[in-house]
Amino acid sequence: MSTPTVALGAKQRTPLRPARILLHVFLIGTSLAWLAPLLWAVFAALRPYSETSTKGYVSWPDKLNFDNFKNAFEQSDMLHYFGNTLLIAVPAVLVTLLVSSMVAFYVSRFDFRLNIFLLLVFTAGNLLPQQVIITPLYRMYLLIDLPGITMSGKLYDSALGLVLIHVAFQSGFCAFVLSNYMRMLPHELTEAALVDGASVWRMYWQIVLPLCKPAMAALGTLLSIWIYNDFFWAIVLISTGENMPITSALNNLSGQYFTDPNLVAAGALLTAIPTLIVYFVLQRQFVSGLTLGANKG
Amino acid sequence: MTTDTNMKSPEAAAVPPSGPAPVKKRVPRGHKRLLTRRDRITLGFMAGVPTVLHVALVWVTALASIALAFTSWDGIGFGSIKWVGLDNFKQLFNDNPQFWPAVEHNVIWFVVLILIPTPFGLFLAVQLDKKIRFSRVYQTAFFLPVVVSLAVTGFVWQLVYNPDTGLINSLIGANKPGHYIDWIGDPHLNLWAVLIAASWRHTGYMMILYLAGLKGVDPSLREASSLDGANEWQTFKNVIFPTLRPTNTVVLVVTIIEALRAFDLVFVFNKGAQGTELLSILITNNIIGESSRIGYGSAIAVVLLVISLVVIIPYLISTFRKERSA
């Protein structure tokens, strides 16, 4: 697996020719156009409602401040919803990585007859649109009673329920990627351990897993962003507004609390901040994660 | 990515390559002899627990969708499940005013994504692959929409489309009462408005996939073609693009699946009312809406499932066949 990061690599800079300058002009223009909706949201969020309501939105700002961000954060109790998201995303990411690496280990290091079929089941499951399974899933979640384990007493409307479906759904993709990765590790590693009498668990935990760190990091980054961004599962499987993770809570809140677009802009931007931070800090992992699965043909 | 030829156990390598069947039979025995009972139980758990979870929540529910599609059920107790044969489908195809528009919109969604943002993403990738200065900065600008959630994207674009306070109407002077262009409310416009937002995101995604694909193109191919005197376009068309075939397959599959999954943007915009119906939205409305028509909702899900499988199965067969022969 060549490192798919899109870095500049060895820099052989060519001198600026007119064609290059033209290209830069084009790219700067398009980049700005691409950022425009986000920048517009920032601009709106920084302006007080009183000002935009009298002067209109396309106008020179008199005042720019963070009041909308502050109000959106406080009025809508965002911290609480960020907390809900953490409660779902952290276990979901960790368990998905654990579970899918176990499947990948099984499939890639041992040649049992059902391997390919098993991997097919996982991979195909991940490719299904979520709506295909939602109706029975929703009913199933309502039927499963978990008194004392979840706040709602059911799988429905609980963080646990969301964690389970995230794990079940995302492990398809991760098992596929990790099994490809593990297959590239030299077989001698585990062969030797097997002959030396190491247990299967030890081979997995102490030999194979540490070697998969780059792939795990990439997938972990990707999963964090995906699960954080999830909207659909939460909209359907969580009924109490209080229990919602941040992205779906925003949908509720925009009708309930936010009376002006500037405040909505601030709320939306606040919701996006964690993913942007993860992206900027772990850009390399994120991009390689995206292409890990896609790069193979 | 297809260098995993020698990854099978030594026993497998020792067998003359007379055909895949005998090789497959010998390998497991070689392993199994070395595995203790406990190891086999451990392995069983390692593969079993995740499989049970995945199959129970994804495949059992998919099968249940198929079964429920032929019934009518109000969701209250299992006793009220009634077998109705093809009634749900008949109703869906003949009487539901939202169904065919939804199918059409899903198709439009795919056609637009594959014709506009996909080639544009490829174009950007080719430009950014030219060892250009500030490549990272440009990439980030195009890629940012992919990082932000679709729900948030929906909110951000609403600020752009808002009839009286939005960017577009303010700029073109259509923000005065009576002169509104209602981008989200007008059933002739809203699908296109949503698709612009969807394309905004899709371009960056495609750019990254193609950039990764371009990194894999052998540089000597480029050199050879420039020695032959080919110009940039000729090189791309005759040399680079053909080598991107695996990427193109992935791009096609990803785009179809994205078109079938499309949901968040529309749900945030207007919940799929008038002009933006999608299959995913119709299914969801049957669950979280007032009515709980489970059989009917499942019938729509089956339509979506069948369309998806038409894409997923050939893709997986070709992928896994390559893997086996590799």
From TrEMBL, chain A:
Membrane topology: Multi-pass membrane protein
Intracellular or extracellular location(s): Cell membrane
PROSITE patterns: ABC_TM1
Pfam families, sorted: BPD_transp_1 (PF00528)
Residue ranges annotated for the ABC transmembrane type-1 domain, each copy included: 82-282
GO terms under biological process: transmembrane transport
Protein name: Multiple sugar transport system permease protein
Organism: Streptomyces canus
Lineage, top ranks: Bacteria, Bacillati, Actinomycetota, Actinomycetes, Kitasatosporales
